[in-house]
């Protein structure tokens, strides 16, 4: 079986490819399907090298390119390629082109292939915004307050309709903010939630642009990749007509993040974080949902991280070369 | 002031143009704005003739055409051009092209014009479907079960985001099934709700393809056009960030429709309606929402018809030449 990962050279794309290689197979309709080949489509190649991984570069919004991405062997498509929140807000046309046109082209390519590929669409909790209840439930109406959230929600609707029509077997997961994101900061407005852990552990200063009491809904890369695999392995019957779901996560305040940082890195680590409010970030963050009741996802078997300390420890374990602060505790 | 009506040669487009001419002005931000010119854009011309009405023909999904539709004088745009429910379900690509691409092109033309035109988007209660509560409220999540509903909901989301970005001053109304629709039946799956009144009054047989107890959420053309004007005259502050609204209407069962028909046309009229269940129509109708609590719209001043008998009498008054059954009572 062939698996296509768009955005396959990105953060989650690389982690997912690694996890698929480690697993070696996926439980699909016809039983265990062997992972013979992973096509990672992106603007450039990724670091992960393996005989089963093939990099293809191009633009997800180019019709001819996207038509060539899927053939009869492509049983599974994971659509990660996207312009993230800050980027889509700053460049409206780019966001529409990549997030909306790109998604539609990919779904059309799946439809043209004709064998109803299983498609995982990675939406975001940014579909929620505006006047939200204290706890967002499966019944809360998504009312995005940013172009990124709008484009993700439109993607979900298309996935639902293409699935209903029998063009694809689609499923869309609304991903919490993934923390701790390794590497350089990206254009996501939520980046500070990773930055205040990642930078101090690297011995570098970080800025907290929001109140320490600010809460966020987060999940670790490990948990998210695990939930991607679970979303793919659930049957169409498990999903039913409702193909969108809020993924489980953890509520964490920035204070709690700093406490977890102190646990592994001591006062020296926390001293590297400076609180410097940024009105632009604050304005956006205030419209975000921080607490969820994900009853449906839990009933369907999705599982998040047990606590934030586990997330930090997993980051240290998975990114040994990024840890440069002296004296960081590497295990509990 | 210039007003653009897309789908302006259609049923509601013609009624709206007539109402705008009769009114002569609209209460906009700068006070009463005189209706100097109405541009009715459609695939063909309409019957209404007036010195202030200009017909332009073309395809709403053609970029060059749509770019030419809006200039600095176009203060108001009402977007009615659409492939209706049955049509969008039967021809997926046509629905996507007209309902999705067409809407986006129009919004982009408004954005390019640069003066933030006031845009009314006509959505539909077909955005609701699936496992619905007995009464749909302002908090009910739209989960469309047809391509038409999906495309309308995507249109709403784009209107919301273009408004938030300041590209347009948009508002979207979810229109109940408009009854009684005059003239020939169209491709809307809900057509029978008009047909079982219209055809008998014309002395023609009609088919009721659903159970007589089937309920629908309806409004008269007069009420709907009145609510379009109201939606346009409300200020951006009245709307706030939530630019979509469920319009008030009436719950009516097909039995109640037949009772109203008997009142004006007697047993002879009702005898022309034959109950002949159609599984395809039944399947669709079962997913529709029939009862709404439209608290927000009522608070914003939207008003529907008082009862179904009033709707039938208005139809008879407005369409005298379509009434051919002998002995029809023309007033209460
Ligand atoms: N990381 C999170 O916190 C988070 C939260 C919610 C949702 N998501 C979603 O998960 C997906 C993956 O996120 P990530 O964190 O790995 O982001 P990422 O930015 O690391 O990866 C996205 C990839 O898409 C690629 N891409 C962008 N434009 C492209 C184009 N025009 N053509 C081809 N490729 C293009 C980028 O090169 C990048 O490698 C995204 O869709 C994102 O919206 C992520
Ligand atoms: N009538 C209802 O019960 C009802 C209910 C809910 C929503 N609506 C919406 O209200 C609007 C008007 O409805 P209506 O009942 O007047 O329908 P209608 O079919 O009479 O009018 C729609 C018009 O759009 C035009 N059109 C279609 N494709 C076009 C294209 N490619 N380019 C240019 N014009 C095109 C048609 O020629 C037609 O005149 C529609 O958007 C409809 O979805 C109607």
Automatic annotation (TrEMBL), chains A, B:
SUPFAM superfamilies reported for this sequence: NAD(P)-binding Rossmann-fold domains (SSF51735)
Keyword Metal-binding part of the UniProt annotation: no
InterPro entries hit by this protein: DenD (IPR050005), Epimerase_deHydtase (IPR001509), NAD(P)-bd_dom_sf (IPR036291)
A Pfam family this chain is assigned to: Epimerase
Keywords recorded for this protein, A-Z: Carbohydrate metabolism, NADP
GO MF term set: oxidoreductase activity
NAD-dependent epimerase/dehydratase domain segment(s): 3-201
Listed Gene3D superfamilies: NAD(P)-binding Rossmann-like Domain, UDP-galactose 4-epimerase, domain 1
UniProt name for this protein: NAD-dependent epimerase/dehydratase family protein
Organism listed in the record: Zeimonas arvi
